[in-house]
Structure to design on (444 residues):
């Protein structure tokens, strides 16, 4: 495999798609050595096929706002790879959504899903619709218009979307209601992240954050450390950050910062249960302002405009807000502030390289945040069997999956000096599973 040639060909075919090209390069560079040990992969042109999505749907979404004015957005679904199962991946509603971003996320999702041990392919979708400042009625009308088009290309054994940035339980409810009305099929598991009264799984809202902390625990344990009493800085205050904060406190850690687009809230004595509960209200308000936490709890939280969570001294950083959010400059600030571990949901390549070169324990998003899609897979299983597991059953399965992902990362990422390159380990483990499945199913 010649990485530079493959990348040159991709850049010629997809000029300007920086996020997507970045994701492909990162994976190819980390798997190159292993790939070249398998001439059967080269003969079947596995990489050349794997880096291109199987199909992409783009569609117009027209809806009417509360003023009676017609609005038009673009909707997308990227069905990236189905070698190991039906497409699985979230829907993102955000003004910055582009095909490049979704291809980046769909490519990453393919390997993340492969790591979970569950039979799920990779996909991603969404729209440039911005839910911030919209009323519930506007969001409902948009979701219904979006599903009017999307429903032709999804199904419980074909493509199963979930939530993502801008798409929470409310949006999944509106989307699912419209799907059922159009398809006349009920609780079939065509969407995950559903409400508990209509097919949802216990722990699904918390799962990404919970899984991230379970994985972090394994990383620390392998390094001979304990999470108890460690200071954690979180970015974001959506479902992922909420789940991470909940589990971090439960495990005895101290969340000392959360951030948003407007700035950071420092919480010197650590976040409390009441504050964690309020994060859900902040998410539902659509204000997208972390300052609301300091307004609600002025004696416990101090807001600083324009700053990030990484400006607060901490032991562990957990980026939980948006892809590529943590830059190399942020990484340097974290290191200067005493941070010695980062389990990412979303870092830029420069930040990753800085952490790896400067002795900061680092684990990549495709492993750290796989708990969300893993629990979506468990929700699909419950839907298919027409049953519901207890919180204990779901949590035990999530624990086992995150432990298994960590073991795969260690297996493929262990270096000659005994250290573990979690980025390399996660990429190789996910790639090998998908590549083998593609090889065994022929050239399709």
């Amino acid at each position: 495999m010649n990485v530079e040639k493959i990348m040159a060909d991709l850049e010629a075919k997809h000029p300007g798609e920086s996020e997507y090209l970045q994701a492909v390069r990162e994976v190819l560079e980390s798997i190159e050595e292993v790939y070249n040990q398998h001439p059967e992969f080269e003969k079947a042109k596995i990489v050349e096929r794997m880096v291109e999505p199987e199909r992409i749907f783009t569609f117009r979404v027209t809806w009417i706002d509360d003023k009676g004015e017609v609005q038009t957005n673009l909707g997308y679904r990227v069905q990236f790879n189905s070698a190991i199962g039906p497409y699985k991946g979230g829907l993102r509603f955000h003004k910055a959504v582009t095909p490049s971003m979704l291809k980046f996320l769909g490519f990453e999702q393919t390997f993340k899903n492969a790591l979970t041990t569950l039979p799920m392919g990779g996909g991603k979708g969404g729209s440039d619709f911005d839910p911030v400042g919209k009323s519930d009625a506007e969001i409902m009308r948009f979701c219904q218009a979006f599903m009017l088009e999307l429903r032709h290309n999804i199904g419980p054994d074909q493509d199963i979307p979930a939530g993502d940035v801008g798409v929470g339980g409310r949006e999944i409810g509106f989307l699912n209601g419209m799907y059922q009305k159009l398809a006349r099929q009920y609780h079939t598991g065509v969407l995950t992240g559903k409400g508990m009264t209509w097919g949802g799984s216990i722990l699904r809202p918390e799962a990404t954050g919970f899984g991230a902390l379970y994985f972090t625990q394994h990383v620390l344990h392998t390094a001979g450390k304990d999470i108890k009493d460690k200071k954690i800085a979180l970015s974001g205050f959506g479902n992922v950050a909420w789940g991470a904060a909940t589990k971090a406190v439960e495990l005895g850690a101290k969340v000392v910062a959360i951030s948003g687009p407007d700035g950071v809230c420092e919480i010197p004595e650590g976040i409390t249960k009441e504050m964690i509960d309020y994060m859900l209200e902040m998410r539902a308000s659509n204000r997208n302002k972390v300052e609301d936490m300091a307004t609600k709890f002025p004696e416990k939280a101090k807001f600083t405009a324009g700053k990030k969570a990484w400006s607060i001294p901490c032991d562990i950083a957990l980026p939980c807000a948006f892809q590529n959010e943590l830059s190399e400059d942020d990484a340097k600030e974290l290191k200067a502030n005493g941070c010695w571990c980062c389990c990412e949901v979303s870092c830029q390549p420069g930040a990753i390289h800085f952490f790896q070169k400067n002795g900061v324990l680092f684990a990549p998003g495709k492993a750290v945040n796989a708990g969300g899609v893993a629990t979506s897979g468990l929700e699909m299983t419950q839907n298919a069997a027409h049953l519901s597991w207890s919180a204990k059953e779901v949590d035990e399965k999530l624990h086992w999956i995150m432990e298994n992902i960590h073991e795969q990362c260690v297996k493929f990422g262990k270096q000659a000096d005994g250290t573990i390159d979690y980025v390399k380990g996660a990429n190789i483990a996910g790639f090998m599973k998908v590549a083998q499945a593609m090889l065994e199913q022929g050239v399709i």
